[in-house]
Amino acid sequence: MPYIKNIEPQNPVALADLVSIQPGQIVSKTLAQNSAVSVTLFAFDKGEEISTHDSTGDAMVTVLEGIGQFTVDGTVYECAAGQTLIMPAKLPHAVYAKERFKMSLTVIFPLNNQE
Question: Quick one: the chain helix, strand, coil %, rounded to 5?
Fold first, then answer.
């Protein structure tokens, strides 16, 4: 069983092409998920959001298209296509789509989720 799913191996692809923006929705596609790492693609329609939450792992977002707004521990960041932001473990964070955008999210979890 492959560790990475929903993407054809040995075939170059633009990640943004693997997820589509849908009206009034947040669309996600999981590429990898286990106790150590999670890799997910997201497509946000304008005005959609993921409310404030935290994670036991460090989260790295890379904007693939458009501009995403990220709030981390009360500070707002806007990231454009090609930019990456680290959201440290255990800090509250949220995502908001001021405009339509796509992103890749990678979360690295501590060994045994004990840290």
Answer: 5, 50, 45
Tokens of 78: 């806007």
pTM higher than the cut 0.90: yes
Residue/partner pairs of 68-71 with CB below 8 Å, 24 or more apart: 68/44, 68/95, 68/96, 68/97, 68/101, 68/103, 69/95, 69/96, 69/97, 69/98, 70/94, 70/95, 70/96, 71/95, 71/96
Spatial distance between the Cα atoms of 109 and 66, rounded to a whole number of angstroms: 28
Tell me the residue length of the chain.
115
pLDDT tens digits for range 52-74: 999 999 999 999 999 999 999 99
